[in-house]
Amino acid sequence: MTAADIAKAVSGGKMSALDATEAALARIKQHDTILNSFTDVTADRARAKARAIDADIAAGKTVGPLAGVPFAVKNLFDVAGLPTRAGSKINRDLAPAKRDATLIERMELAGAVLVGALNMGEYAYDFTGENVHDGPSRNPHDTTRMTGGSSGGSGSAVGGALVPIALGSDTNGSIRVPSSFCGIFGLKPTYGRLSRARSFPFVASLDHLGPFARDVTDLALAYDAMQGPDTDDAACTTRGLEPTLPLIANPISDLRIAIADGHFQKNVFPEAVEAVSRVAKALGATKVVDVPEASRARAAAYVITTTEGASLHLDRLRKRPNDFDPAVRDRLIAGAMVPAALVDRAQKFRRWYRAQLAEIFKSVDVLIAPATPCTAPKLGQVNFNLDGVELPLRANIGIHTQPISFVGLPVVAVPVPLEPLPIGVQIIAAPWREDIALRVAYALEKMGVVAAPSPRGL
Residue 369 belongs to what domain range? Predict the structure, then answer.
């Protein structure tokens, strides 16, 4: 059942929240030994919340739009009573969180039921979904393959239909990459749109939080529930609520839709080309727009990522270097040695690049681009061949996502159900126009061009 179906059944008295919760817990117990998407299952908490919702309904009280809907969160979200591990070994020594992350609080205020915390790449510095401490999360369509990272457990849990909604984070592509590999919908909102309060950071100037779901309606439901200012996150917008669910079914005939050219037409496997072609054809998009210096934007995002990440973890690198994933540790050490002049240049370029994108969005409403260059690679794969060049896989999976999150644009990743594996396409809109990206995604879903396939590997 979708989140919308569950909420309707629970609020209408046709299903209890406890039954919905027990069904999710049963699916997790049955399938997560294979998928390895969960690191913590909060069964007692979930049952208590579900019983409270059922009691409110019995008493005639109004329940929220996500009443009884099970959800789970990447384990960098604070969950009261659990150490916030952020995919690491070191963080397990932290005291348990005293309070939930803001987005968990808002989801539960809307009636959702938290059932657990999800596997992720260490400290979110990962595109594969492989974790040396907890093992890899596995792709629900082929368990020998990657989920994508760093929100790999979120992608696996939703792609495997263990929960209808999960929350993750996206710094350089960590919502859009798992969405692509696991064949689900993901929303990376505008930078600052959703609160990051009480979540473990990676790169404060690039970090976003957002939802995963199996259809666009559920994505909008979750996103709308989490909106709103939050003084606990200095980067969070002061804009008021701007609900998207009432708008997603609006016609898209008035929208100016273009295909991103240049960088986004290169470094792609045939399946990525086919996915973009299908989406563009369905939307009648023929206009092609060059995104200037997108490759340079990606390089600048790398500089900012590695230096900010290194600064955050410097004390841990000094005190406990052997407790890091070696691949993460080495990249952070390298980041600590990047000259300040390069960081300064990257930030100056960032301002220029943001202005270029703002100019593009004066003449278009939506850009279409690949989410990943390929479908999910095999677990343990180290390299792949892009445009005839052998390249390290982990570093280049986000080749098409980084230039977009670099300036904080909202994106809906939509799954194109190719055979044998799905792959995602980015629907990119101007800042604060999540409603437009969701409208286009919804139209594509109704046309049957994009859809979350049933898990094939379970």
Answer: 3-300+327-447
